[in-house]
Amino acid sequence: MTPAIEIKGLTKRYRTGLRRETVLALDHLDLRVEPGEVYGLLGPNGSGKSTTLKLALGLIRATAGEAKIFGKPCASVVSRLHVGFLPENPYFYRFLTGAETLMFYGRLCGMSGAPLSKRVDELLQLVGLTNAASRPLAGYSKGMLQRIGLAQAMVHDPQLLLLDEPTAGVDPIGSKEIRDLIIRLRAMGKTVLLCSHLLTQVQDVCDRICILNQGRKVREGRVDDLLRDQKRLCITVESLPEAARAQIAEWVEDWGASVVSIENPQTTLESLFLDAVKAQQPPTPPNKP
Amino acid sequence: MKRNWVLIPLVLLAAALVKMPFEASMAADRPHTAGVGLNLKTREMIGQGMSLALLGGFRALVADFLWISAHAAWEQNRWFTMRQHFEVVTTLQPRAILFWDMASWHLAWNASHAALHDPNEPRLAVRLRDQRHWMRAGRELLERGIANNPNNAFLHEKLAWMLHDKFQDLCGAADAALKAVQLCQDWRRGYLQRLAGYWLEDCARNVAPSRLRETYDYWRQLWLREYAGKPREHWDTIDRNVSRRIMKLEEELSIPDLQRLFPKPQPSVSVPPRR
Amino acid sequence: MSTTPALPDVVYFNLGRVWTMALNTLIEMTRQKVFYFMIVFALLMIGAASFFSIFSFGEEAQYITQLKFIKDTGLGAISVFGAIIAVVATAQLLPAELENRTIYTILAKPVHRLEFLLGKFVGVALLLAISVTLMGSLFLGVVFIKDQNLSAATYHETIEAAEGAVAGSPDMKPETKQKVLAEARTRAEQGAAEIHKTAGYQDIVKAMTTTLFKLWLVAAMTLMLSSFATSMVFTVVMSAMLYFSGHLVPVAQKFYATSKAPLGQLMAGVVNWFLPNLAAFDVADDLFAGDPLPWLKVLKILSYGLFYLLVTLTLAHLIFREREI
Question: Quick check: pTM over 0.80?
């Protein structure tokens, strides 16, 4: 099967300033994203994540190597027929309303008339902005902008979505909603490539991840495989009496292993926050009719 | 990136090759634009071009405001200020006929008259010299206006009047008027044609007798073109006036009877005027 | 479940997308209150119409001066405001797109860069066309009113003078009276017609049409500059310089032909060979001086404008195509 994204030996060297100094932003990157998977591109700022996305979208030109989307070279317009892109911290035309924004991007994708209006309504519902559809974007919050950004990326129902820091700067609830959306997209059979430096948020949604640093691939693989510490085991039990602990420790040592820690598991701050906020207010489903 | 180093110069070159004949053809349509094609001094042309470029669309409006200040200077008899404004105004808008006309009139008539009657200057010789100075200034300005607008009948006519009234240059006035007739297309043509004839005749009778034949030919052609064909009983003052002049010239120049427009009445046969 | 879409080999250039971009650009600029210029223009026109009527210069035909001043104001303001809109509005198009990152979302769609660029240009061109039309209609309206007032005044003055003369001579024969009055009417009509002619509506329309093409060309040059410029100030300054030099092309031509100084000749040659002759679009002075310029020749000027639009936009496309965003 043709990979959704295929990158071979991709190198990008930026020239800075007037002198001949160059910065190597991407160094012989190889990458392959299969259709239907959610792929996370992780790394610190300046590691080459955005450069990779820009190259994949044909916004900049590679110094060496090649990138293909669904088998088409990235410089061609054809390669973008089935790509949706959400840039980092997107701003849109402030004077357009949510619906107008989606109409505009839809028209750029060659859609028009009733199918476009229908699609726009669908998308607004999908990202939970039906109520804000006729308000100009100037009045949107960061999370709403991010969601309208996702909607515009999906307007032509592309098979591949490229998301640059989709949850950056969004509050935990918004971030959760966006991640739920990504999971839903995977269920719909879409391929997603997302860039992030917020590692924990990526953890639950990505099938595979790649860690970039200084333009080079450092790690790549399935999230479970990468995170699983093969030597260590964690058992979570409930209502274990204090006395049993010592016994278990002894038993473990009989097997020649050692106990590293015995402690009460902590919930994540995020889930604590989500539980607390949800208890405070009545639930508001994102796609209220 | 590399491609552009070839393509961009190529496009520019191709554009230049099309541009030249295109512009030449446009310039032929409009020979007087920005003084190009006229034999203006380079300095004058660059001045016009610069003002065109720098003031852009407001050039005409700036000229209008300076015109108003020139007018104020006239009302206060500040003649030198007025003249300076005229210089700038006509440089800014060399195609505004009104400016050349009015400015040269102010200089040659008003300023020169004021100089002749300057109450602060007791010496007549100086006043006369100053009068001539302003008249010449007016004439120079008007002649520059004609250089900028060579096809404008009105400015030639104004020059004719100036030469006639202020300089008593009868032949110069006649020539300028003849030029105006050549260029005039509108209703003034009828009057200009006669004016040129009168002044040409004045020139021939008072200054250059050799031009008497030219005068006759001029009147004759004018008569054949404009007046002939009207029965004598319908002649008005103009017809009678012109016909009298022609008859007189025919006598003076001893034009053979057969070639005359108005042959001497023969005792026996009456010949109607030829058409 | 997951699918690999079947993709065509090529996506063709599409005017629909250009139009979508153009309308979006137009709306964007409209909401940036570009049309405030119109209010200034309206005030200027009305001000000029009443201001200049208080001046009298002792000339025979006052109406010539009055109409000239109004026309100078109107055409001058249209040309200057238009040039400001053409340069400033165009210069900020690409920087604004880059700053808002909207250009990323647009070019990430199946959109050709040429479609994007042309869309931006057509948007500005529409804005300029609307502006010139609005200002021009207002301007023509003011000229029309002035024309009506002046010609009506002249007409009545002539008639009244004749009636006065007739009334003042009681021993005039009735048929002579009729003749005098009839002659006065003819003269009054001629006078009024002369004023209508001086108003020169067709000439104004011609001048505004060529001005609009000049403004389009200026906007295209600005877009070309901003397709490689990294700062908006650079674009505006360079555009202004091109604007001025473009008006100097005829002078450069003459200078090139006559000058002996090698450096001056080189500079004049560069201007002469590579810049469009913007002065060619300034036809108002010639028209009002009485040089006839039939529509066919106006058309030649317009096609010169179109030719340079093509050249300029081609250059802009070549540069923008290679630009890293």
Answer: yes
